Amino acid sequence: MTRTIAIANQKGGVGKTTTTVNLGAALVERGRRVLAVDLDPQASLTLALGHDADALPRTIYSAMMAAMKGEEASLADVLQPTEAGLDLLPASIELSQAELDLTREPLGIYALRDSLNGFADGYDYILLDCPPSLGILTANALAAAAEVVIPLQADYLALKGVDLLLRTIGKIQKRANTTLKVRGIVLTMADLRTLHAREVVEAARETFGQTVPVFDTIIHANVRLKEAPLIGQSILAYATDSPGAQGYRALAQEIEL
Ligand SMILES: Nc1ncnc2c1ncn2[C@@H]1O[C@H](COP(=O)(O)OP(=O)(O)OP(=O)(O)O)[C@@H](O)[C@H]1O
Ligand SMILES: [Mg+2]
Fold this sequence. Notes:
By secondary structure, this protein is of the alpha/beta class. The protein is built from twelve helices and eight strands.
C-alpha cells in the first residue's frame, strides 16, 4: 500500500521542504521506496535534492496539465533520481502558471491525483511538498493525499496559522477527499534551551492535542539542516549523527508505527 502524505502549512519557512527531503531520506534509509513531489513554483525541493529547476526538460506542471486535459500523464518523463535516494517529480517557476490554469478548471483540484494515478504503485511513500499558501496547488496535494503532516515552527506566532489550515483541511474532507486524515503536527526548529520554545511545545500539545495528534518527535534547530541542501544532500548523508539527522530518523520511525 502506498502512503501519500502532504507536507503542508500555508505559513512560509516553517520546515516543509526540509521535512520532505529528510523524512524522505530517513524512510529510504529504512528500505522504503519514496517519491517526493515538488508542488512549489519556488522549486526549493528540486534544488535541495540537487537539481537545477531551469535546466529540467519537464516538471510536474506538464503532467498535471496533461491530466487536466484527460490525456495520459507521462510521469516517467518527468521523474528524476536524486543522490538522497528518493525519486523526484521536480517543479520550476512554470508551476506558477498552473495556479491560474487549474483555478479556472472546474475539476482543477484533482489534477495531481489524476496524474499520479497508476504511477503511485511502485512506491511505499509519496511525499508532497506544498507551497506556502492555501491556493490550488496545496488543495491539489490535499485532494491527492491520504494523510497530512503539518510542520510547525516552535514559535508562538506560528501557532496562530494552524486553525486556518485545519479549517481548509476540513473543507477538503467534506468535499474532495473524505478519507483525508491529519497524521500529525511536527514541531520544527525548536531550541529547547529557551523557555519560549518549551512553552510553545507545551502550548501546541495543549491547543491541538485534543483534535490533532502532535508527534512525540521534535525537530531541533540545527544549522546542519540549513547546510545540507546547498550541496543537494539529505542531512543523513551530510551530517549523519547530527541532531537534525537523529530527529528525522525518529520522525520516520514514528510515521511507520
Ligand atoms: N530544524 C531546523 N533547524 C535550522 N534550520 C532549519 C530547520 N528546518 C529548516 N531550517 C531552515 O529554515 C529555512 C526554511 O525551511 P524550509 O525551506 O524547509 O521551510 P518551508 O516551510 O519549506 O519554506 P517555504 O514556505 O518557503 O516553502 C531553510 O533555510 C531551512 O534550511
Ligand atoms: Mg518549501
